[in-house]
Design a protein that fits this description.
Four Helix Bundle (Hemerythrin (Met), subunit A); extended
Amino acid sequence: MSTYEILFWFLTVMALSCALGVILSRNPVNSVLFLIATFFAISGHYVLMNAQFLAIVNIIVYAGAIMVLFLFVIMLMNLNADTEPQKNRLVQFAGVISGGALFLVVLAALRTSSVNMLEQSPTDIGLIKNLGKTLFTQFVLPFEISSVLFLSAMIGAVVIGKKEEAVSEVKQ
């Protein structure tokens, strides 16, 4: 076995076990931490596929920003065993059925696939350098239009926030 195969299987086992930890953990904070570990394992897979940009974005956006948001919401909700709703058996049965169907679809897809990802040589498609060249040559106009739209959305959010703040000060 090569080093890449060992790393691939280690990351795969880590991703699957942490994903199971998300589902099976009774503590919501532990579920969020398992989900962060799952995102890191998936980012490791991206690095193995030579897609460094996707790995970095996955870590920054999902493991960073969104998981911190989830963690704050869970902490603010202060979930206890006393406040949890009772589990419905019908919902659990539907979850088992849909999970089994998804498992069968994945097995069928793996059985019919003919491409072995471990034997392919790495390419330069996912490198940040190539992505930057493509963004700033072929797609420079859509890239700049989206940046102007994001800037106007941020300014609009600040203006709306200031108006609501000013109205609440007048009411007091």
